[in-house]
Amino acid sequence: MNNNDTWVINRFGMVNFWYYDSQDYMFQNGRLLLRGANGSGKSVTMQLFIPLLLDGNKSPHRLDPFGGKDRRLENYLLEEDSPDDERTGYLFIEFVKGAQKLAIGMGARARKKQGVDSWYFILGGGMVIGDNFRLVKDGACLTKSELRTQAGSAGQVFDSQKEYMQAVNRAVFGFSSPGEYSDMIDLLVQLRSPKLSKDYKPTVIHEILNDSLPPLTEEDLRPLSEAIENMDDQKDKLDAMEASKNAADKIAVAFDHYNRLLAAEKARHCA
Asked: Rounded to whole angstroms, how far apart are CA atoms 128 and 185?
């Protein structure tokens, strides 16, 4: 696929998030290889971006590749023994298409014993995070209102996770319906695993892909059933027409032979 025709991931980054003040991970033609010893944070790093930033769903079971419910977004901002009472951080993914750049992401503000507030954004219009657009001002991460003001007409800031998800689909992926986009996200969740080399045999991949497909309803199956029935009817008609043509061809051969004999007979009489 031509990279000038579709959005390709260029990098993802953290700002004042988890153990990082600022960290970028660069992609090469949409590909990234993370290497490290067990427990070094590869799975945690990936789960903070895919699929979190694709739909904004920060439910605990989505943050844990094992499907647990113990990990919460606020845990990556404020540890239990943290001396801070609150902390604000950002996550983002940058896409490129030719010379264009587009960033999607989320900001989160965690306060002790008060959970986490989050907001989402899409940034275009030539604005590039870390270049002519900064997520930090005077040593502190932008608040939601500061982000909205700085983004101006070049970006969108969302309070609603659902609105953000729909906007990301429209801006980057272009699925025809939110349901189709959601199905793609569910497939990514199914495929995500920290132990691919151990558990993922072809049969397991087959089961995951099969489970990721939405069940077919009667409404889905009816047009298919009618189409197959119509195909059967057309096949019967074609068979009947072919049999009729074969019979007509035989009659034509016999009639042609008769005409030749009749013409020869008349020719002899005239002679």
From this structure: 26
Q: Which of 57, 52, 12, 67 is nearest to 34 (CA)?
A: 12
- Alpha-carbon distance of 7 to 30, in angstroms, equals 9
State residue 212's pLDDT score: 63
Instruction: Look at the alpha carbons of 72, 76, 82, 87 in this order and tell me if their dihedral is positive or negative.
Output: negative
Is the predicted pLDDT of residue 152 greater than 70, yes or no? yes
Separation between Cα atoms, residue 46 and residue 189, nearest integer Å: 12
Q: Dihedrals φ, ψ of 56, to 5°?
A: 75, 5
Tokens encoding 234: 């057309």
Structure tokens at 71: 């990990």
Residues in the chain, how many?
A: 271
CA distance 87 to 77: 6
Instruction: Report strand pairing: 100-111 vs 86-97.
Output: antiparallel
Contacts of 117 (CB under 8 A, 6+ apart): 108, 109, 144
Confirm if 34 and 46 have CB atoms less than 8 A apart. yes
C-alpha to C-alpha distance for 105 and 217, rounded to whole angstroms: 35
Cβ-contact 133, 123 below 8 angstroms: yes
Q: What is the value of pTM for the model shown? A: 0.71
Task: Confirm if 147 and 89 have CB atoms less than 8 A apart.
Answer: no
Task: Report the helix count and the strand count for the chain, using DSSP H and E.
Answer: 9, 8
